[in-house]
Specification:
alpha/beta, 6 helices
């Protein structure tokens, strides 16, 4: 049976809920809810598994804090012997506008601390990414590090559910049809934004 790992990145604790950096957790939660996954603790994370189309899928939310995400991802992937091309990581991307999703395989970390940790712990960068655009701060005086840890704006909050749903659908497509089909179907999709 093929095994797939979907890791949504974020920071644990109430303080970080509904912050831009936790959008990976939000997408993982949507997947957990959709597939009715029972979660448990282990591998420095909350994780669970389900079977769909003859594939065993693990969903993981590392509890190490973002900068050490790789410790959790590598531990689970190693224990269950999950191939690199079957690991998908969901995370926030400041270089994409809010609401834009990009699926890709491999590439650099682009400075994302969670990705730096995962690449380091896996010893390879050739895993699949679901990059969820959060945009950059409009105010040049706001540091990117503060921006990603900030809460969503009012307009973003109105659109976050649709964006998370888009990512959940893309991950479901990846599980069932693979990365090429998912890139074809989802890489030019944008949500229909609701404005204030």
């Amino acid at each position: 049976m093929d095994k797939i790992l979907v890791a949504g990145l974020g920071n644990p604790g109430m303080k970080y809920r509904n912050t831009r950096h936790n959008i990976g957790f939000m997408a993982a939660d949507a997947l957990i809810s959709y597939y009715n996954v029972d979660m448990r603790g282990g591998f420095y994370s909350d994780y669970g598994d389900f079977v769909v189309d003859g594939k065993k899928v693990f969903v993981q939310k590392p509890q190490t804090y973002m900068n050490l995400s790789g410790k959790a991802v590598a531990a689970l992937a190693s224990y269950y012997d999950i191939e690199l091309e079957n690991i998908l990581v969901i995370y926030d991307d400041v270089d994409l506008p809010f609401g834009k999703l990009k699926i890709k395989r491999g590439g650099s970390s682009a400075g994302h601390k969670g990705l730096i940790s995962i690449i380091s712990c896996l010893g390879d960068e050739d895993f699949i990414r679901a990059k969820m655009g959060i945009g950059r701060p409009e105010n040049p005086n706001i540091a990117v590090s503060d921006y990603v840890l900030g809460k969503f704006s009012r307009t973003e909050s109105k659109n976050i559910e649709e964006f998370v749903d888009l990512c959940k659908n893309a991950v479901s497509c990846f599980i069932k049809e693979g990365v090429v089909s998912t890139m074809t179907k989802f890489n030019n999709k944008n949500i229909t934004k609701k404005e204030d």
